């Protein structure tokens, strides 16, 4: 199984461990990732807040690059995933936009590539593929899966899981043996996009998520988005300061946990690069 | 050559305010066959009709064209006018220059004028070819079938039976009573639902004119108004109700417990069961899917204990046929399956998020908690209760676009009951609008507010479990802020939707199902209980959401329509139905499957041509009792042998030519 | 507060432009408030989403485009997902931000607009966003030099911070996209 791999800007910097763990896990599961050569930024929220055309044109270049590779794209970052999906749909359905994009990029878009989130790709494996390779089940772990916004919303664009009660990350971790808890904040926004520009708002949203996760009895939060992970992890001290709280909940990528279950060394999965220490998680599992 | 008169109606300013009616009348005189033309403010008024009669006499008119509103509104009116003038009433043709013209083109009066003339030309072209038509008569079977034994069916059955006609009442559940008998108190008077409905249930079972088939379903309907033949399938109860005394010993001793549907799963019942103590008939049925004997082959405790020897494991399904003259559909409603649609409210996985019907059972003295309001998860008394209205109603994205009409009032009643029964309770009601159009309804709503219920204007966006609380996140749009309530229990006013299986019933009685799944009445204002199929009537919520007062009123209305019909000895049929010209019919049979009323069949005739031996031939034949004149067969007929009287091919072609050539 | 003169204040051209840009018919909104109820940020907004929708129905252009709410919206699309009338509320918010930006009305919440400018500036210059540069740039321009310094240090020690940007080979193509988009939109 080969995919054109679009890591996105974060995975080359603040979310290096997501990139690492993604490559490790995909390698172990037989998913071949071919990084799109010379890919560019998807434009993120800033682009679609500024110009609709720009927000389609920037991903269009990446879609075209993948098109010339003849491969469908997989994207680990929820934000990049949603922007690439959105652009793909707009280019397919909106002729006027397609024409304009051709004008501004200088190439007519005729790519037929599909855009899939990394979660979708891993879930799409034959059920036994993952199960048969598990050497270190996550039995002792109680986790809550945090999907955030962009993996599931708007359903018109994403649409691979239920927007209100998504299950695919839950099921993946259950396959790995983890105890996955039901909780009410799976898809609440964490406000990552405003962390820099309006931290006060972000801190309240992060606090709410941590509070509900803690109340559910979770050892850790599991994400599939570099922005959510970084936001929920690195801002916990800020939350504690602002609200007089004492949260210390590790926030992990689903790929890191799957990697552990597959027996990959924690160091190769980036377990040493979190803000909230992950020792207690590792202790639970090893 | 016919002598046609054209009568242009102003309909006040509806038509007269857009086009120049006198000019239209003048232009109409030049159309072929027209010998007289005039206009008037209101042609349907008495002076208007009289002027038509006068003109028929003065100008020896033998065809009449009225250019006015839709024939759905006034065709009957003007046909009677013609009859009063001594003309065959079917020598009338209407041109609809209101709905089809001035209402929709009121911003382009010049084009409307031209279109009106085109519509009148069409009508005149057809009028030239009109033939007199004569209704025939069919006999009347003076019995009525009522499908569904909820309050609508009960009321209809009792009214028709009281009028002296025989009634067959069919109910698919083991007891009659429907949804109403599950309710606790009824708004706005707070009288006990069971207290007012169970006497009616008993009256049904004891009425000499009513034959009751419970645990039975209508399996087929043949025939037509006045002469229906109905097939009823009586499901197997494994209890001989002629022997059973209803003592209840079997139910007490049955070892198998299953979820009790009468209490919406809030408690359990036995595998042999009487749905509730006041059930009619008060006799048990065996739920074979869950019965230990039927699933394992061992048990038979009920049979051993039954002193009357009424348990019969070998009982077979029976099929009964009944002849009736009229049918009333009263199949009622069920609640929208909110748990399948509303993920934001938990998809039904939080036990303390319940529907209004669950609440009715919880607050009912005969219910699973003996009338104590206890939440399902831990049987504790909820101190903070949130009510959410419009769950599935007024929600085109997730449910139905319409308003379910009864929820505002029953939610107010629920709020009142919580505040009455739970000391110190807090009640929050999230709503979009509060709709109280009924006698003493608004007063009841205001009383609930005085009781202490807090109404919050905004839809709830999310409900989630946090510890043993349910967090309800809504907004107060009047305050302009998002709000949150930590509740112990949440009650959803889920939408009313039509009963499961309504499509099957609709198909059997040839009634249309509307876009929302309700049965279609013949006219929303003027024929609310009739359908487009003669002899088939609607009562209660099968036609659309209603509360109890409206349901009962409509049920009585249907009953009076039925009684009016059954008092007749015979029935005049609409002459505008299909007729077969057997001389050119090839017997291909294409018309048979297209008929939605099963009115066309093939038959064999013997043809005698002078000089030849008699020969047999297959041709189509139309049952004039069943045919509704829809014209489907006409379209399917290649040689043009089947034609609808009053809509012949020649007439239709003349109309098209008049407009297009 | 003063009376809103509904006839004088209604800006039909604005309503038309918005309908075209967003593809949404705000008249369909029946003010149930579910958008506000589910909005994670409504609590911090000067006008909650349902009021923005109401203002749009009335054509109150200035109030909407000068509101903080349109900038605070995080485009989480909870509103869009749950709107019973199938209105893409988040899409409307997006169109409003674009319109406000085009008219230079970004003062209501300067920090977010500034972030967008710096972010896109980084993308335009390098082809990919340089996260460290964007954070630093924003702090500098907002005069909050020490904001998130702990997070920055943490990222650095964990090897998750790229101090220097690197240009992609196709940077020229990306810059061209920016230039052409802005040229085209100005012409329109």
Summarize the structure.
The complex is a heterotrimer of chains A (286), B (661) and C (188). With 661 residues, chain B is of the alpha/beta class.
Tell me about this structure:
The complex is a heterotrimer of chains A (286), B (661) and C (188). With 286 residues, chain A is of the alpha/beta class. Chain A has 13 helices and eight strands. In chain A, helix 1 links the parallel strand 1 and strand 2. Chain B contains 20 helices and 34 strands. Chain B has a five-stranded parallel sheet. Chain C has 188 residues and is mainly α. Chain C folds into two domains: 100 residues, Fumarate Reductase Iron-sulfur Protein, Chain B, domain 2 (Orthogonal Bundle), CATH 1.10.1060; 79 residues, no CATH class. Chain C is built from twelve helices and no strands. Classes of the chains: A alpha/beta (286), B alpha/beta (661), C mainly alpha (188). Chains in contact: A-B, A-C, B-C. Chains A and C meet through helix 2, helix 3, helix 5 and helix 9 of A and helix 7, helix 8, helix 9, helix 10 and helix 11 of C.
CATH architecture of the largest domain in chain B: 3-Layer(bba) Sandwich
Strand residues, percent of chain B: 15-25%
CATH C-level class of the largest domain in chain C: Mainly Alpha
CATH fold field value of the largest domain in chain B:
FAD/NAD(P)-binding domain
Name the helicity range of chain C.
55-70%
Q: Say what oligomer this is.
A: heterotrimer
Radius of gyration of chain B: 31 Å
Please state the average pLDDT score of chain B.
96
Whole-number tally of structural domains of chain B: 5
CATH H-level homologous superfamily name of the largest domain in chain B: FAD/NAD(P)-binding domain
- Largest beta-sheet details of chain B: 5 strands, parallel
CATH topology category name of the largest domain in chain C: Fumarate Reductase Iron-sulfur Protein, Chain B, domain 2
Q: What profile does the largest beta sheet of chain C have?
A: none
The N- and C-terminal alpha carbons of chain C lie at a distance of 37 Å
- What's the structural domain tally of chain C? 2
Euclidean distance between termini CA atoms of chain B? 22 Å
């Amino acid at each position: 199984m080969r995919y054109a791999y679009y890591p996105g800007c974060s995975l080359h910097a603040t979310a290096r461990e997501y990139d690492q763990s993604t490559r490790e896990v995909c390698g172990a599961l037989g998913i071949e990732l071919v990084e799109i050569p010379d890919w560019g930024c998807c434009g993120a929220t800033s682009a679609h807040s500024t110009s609709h055309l720009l927000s389609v044109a920037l991903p269009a270049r990446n879609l075209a690059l993948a098109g010339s590779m003849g491969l469908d794209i997989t994207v680990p970052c929820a934000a990049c995933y949603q922007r690439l999906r959105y652009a793909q749909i707009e280019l397919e359905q909106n002729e006027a936009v397609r024409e304009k994009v051709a004008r501004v990029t200088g190439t007519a878009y005729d790519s037929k590539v599909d855009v899939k989130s990394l979660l979708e790709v891993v879930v799409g494996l034959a059920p036994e593929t993952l199960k048969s390779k598990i050497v270190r089940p996550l039995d002792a772990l109680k986790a809550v899966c945090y999907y955030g916004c962009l993996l599931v919303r708007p359903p018109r664009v994403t649409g691979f899981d239920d927007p209100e009660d998504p299950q695919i990350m839950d099921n993946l971790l259950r396959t790995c043996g983890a105890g996955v808890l039901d909780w009410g904040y799976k898809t609440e926004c964490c406000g990552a996009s405003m962390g820099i520009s309006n931290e006060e708002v972000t801190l309240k949203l992060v606090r709410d998520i941590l509070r509900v996760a803690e109340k559910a009895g979770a050892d850790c939060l599991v994400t599939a988005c570099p922005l959510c992970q970084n936001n929920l992890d690195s801002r916990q001290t800020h939350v504690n300061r602002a609200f007089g709280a004492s949260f210390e909940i590790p926030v992990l990528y689903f790929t890191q946990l799957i990697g552990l279950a597959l027996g990959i060394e924690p160091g190769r999965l980036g377990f040493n690069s979190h803000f909230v220490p992950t020792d207690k998680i590792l202790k639970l599992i090893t | 050559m016919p002598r046609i008169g054209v009568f242009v109606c102003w309909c006040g300013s509806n038509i007269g305010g857009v086009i120049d009616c006198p000019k239209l009348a003048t232009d109409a005189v030049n159309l072929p066959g027209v010998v007289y033309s005039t206009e008037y403010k209101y042609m349907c008024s008495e002076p208007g009709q009289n002027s038509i009669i006068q003109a028929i006499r003065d100008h020896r008119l033998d065809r009449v064209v009225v250019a006015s509103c839709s024939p759905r509104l006034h065709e009957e009116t003007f046909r009677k006018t013609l009859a009063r003038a001594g003309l065959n009433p079917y020598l009338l043709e209407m041109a609809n220059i209101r709905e089809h013209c001035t209402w929709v083109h009121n911003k382009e009066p010049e084009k409307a004028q031209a279109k009106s003339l085109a519509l009148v030309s069409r009508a005149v072209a057809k009028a030239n070819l009109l033939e007199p038509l004569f209704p025939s008569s069919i006999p009347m079977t003076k019995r009525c079938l009522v499908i569904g034994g909820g309050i609508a069916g009960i009321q209809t059955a009792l009214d028709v039976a009281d009028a002296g006609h025989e009634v067959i009442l069919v109910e698919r559940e083991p007891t009659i009573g429907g949804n109403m008998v599950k309710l606790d108190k009824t708004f706005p008077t707070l009288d006990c639902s069971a207290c007012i409905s169970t006497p009616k249930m008993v009256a049904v079972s004891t009425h000499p004119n009513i034959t009751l088939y419970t645990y039975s379903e209508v399996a087929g309907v043949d025939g037509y108004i006045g002469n229906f033949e109905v097939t009823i399938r009586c499901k197997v109860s494994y209890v001989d109700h002629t022997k059973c005394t209803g003592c209840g010993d079997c139910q007490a001793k049955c070892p198998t417990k299953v979820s009790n549907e009468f209490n919406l799963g809030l408690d359990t019942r036995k595998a042999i069961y009487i749905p509730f103590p006041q059930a009619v008939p008060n006799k048990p049925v065996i739920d074979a899917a869950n019965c230990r004997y039927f699933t394992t082959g061992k048990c038979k405790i009920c049979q051993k204990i039954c002193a009357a020897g009424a348990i019969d494991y070998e009982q077979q399904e029976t099929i009964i046929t009944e002849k009736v003259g009229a049918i009333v559909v009263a199949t009622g409603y069920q609640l929208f399956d909110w748990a399948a649609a509303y993920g934001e409210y938990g998809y039904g996985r939080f036990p303390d998020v319940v529907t209004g019907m669950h609440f009715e059972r919880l607050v009912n003295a005969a219910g699973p908690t003996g009338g104590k309001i206890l939440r399902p998860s831990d049987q504790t008394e909820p101190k903070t209760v949130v009510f959410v209205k419009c769950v599935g109603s007024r929600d085109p994205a997730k449910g139905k676009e319409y308003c379910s009409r009864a929820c505002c009032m029953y939610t107010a009643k629920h709020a009142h009951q919580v505040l009455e029964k739970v000391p110190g309770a807090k009640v929050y009601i999230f709503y979009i609008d509060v709709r109280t159009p009924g006698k003493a309804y608004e007063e009841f709503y205001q009383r609930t507010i005085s009781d202490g219920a807090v109404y919050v204007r905004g839809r709830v966006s999310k409900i989630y479990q946090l510890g043993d609380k349910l967090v309800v996140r809504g907004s107060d749009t009047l305050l302009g802020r998002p709000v949150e309530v930590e509740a112990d229990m949440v009650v959803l006013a889920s939408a009313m939707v039509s009963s499961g299986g309504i499509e099957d019933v609709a198909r059997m009685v040839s009634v249309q199902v509307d876009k929302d799944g309700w049965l279609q009445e013949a006219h929303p204002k003027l024929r609310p209980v009739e359908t487009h199929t003669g002899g088939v009537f609607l009562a209660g919520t099968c036609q659309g959401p209603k509360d109890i007062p409206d349901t009962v009123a409509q049920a009585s209305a249907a009953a009076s329509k039925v009684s009016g019909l059954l008092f007749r000895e015979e029935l005049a049929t609409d002459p505008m139905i299909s007729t077969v010209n057997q001389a050119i019919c090839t017997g291909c049979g294409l018309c048979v499957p297209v008929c939605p009323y099963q009115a066309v069949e093939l038959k064999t005739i013997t043809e005698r041509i002078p000089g030849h031996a008699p020969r047999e031939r297959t041709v189509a034949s139309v049952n004039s009792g069943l045919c509704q004149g829809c014209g489907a067969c006409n379209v399917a007929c290649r040689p043009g042998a089947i034609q609808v009287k009053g809509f012949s091919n020649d007439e239709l072609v003349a109309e098209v030519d008049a407009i297009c050539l | 507060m003063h009376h809103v003169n509904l006839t004088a204040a209604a800006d039909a051209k604005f309503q038309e432009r918005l309908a075209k840009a967003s593809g949404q018919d705000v008249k369909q909104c029946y003010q149930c408030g579910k958008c506000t109820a589910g909005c994670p940020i409504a609590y911090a907004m000067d006008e909650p989403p349902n009021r923005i929708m109401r203002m749009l129905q009335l054509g109150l252009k200035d109030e909407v485009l000068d509101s903080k709410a349109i900038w605070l919206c995080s485009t989480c699309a909870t509103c869009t997902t749950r709107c019973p009338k199938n209105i893409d509320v988040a899409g409307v918010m997006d169109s409003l931000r674009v319109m406000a930006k085009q008219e230079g009305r970004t003062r209501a919440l300067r920090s977010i607009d500034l972030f967008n400018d710096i972010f896109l500036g980084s993308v335009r210059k390098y082809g990919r966003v340089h996260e460290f540069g964007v954070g630093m740039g924003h702090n500098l321009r907002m005069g909050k030099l020490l904001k998130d310094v702990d997070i920055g240090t943490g990222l650095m020690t964990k090897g998750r911070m790229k101090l220097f940007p690197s240009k992609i080979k196709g940077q020229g193509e990306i810059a061209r996209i920016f230039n052409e988009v802005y040229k085209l939109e100005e012409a329109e």
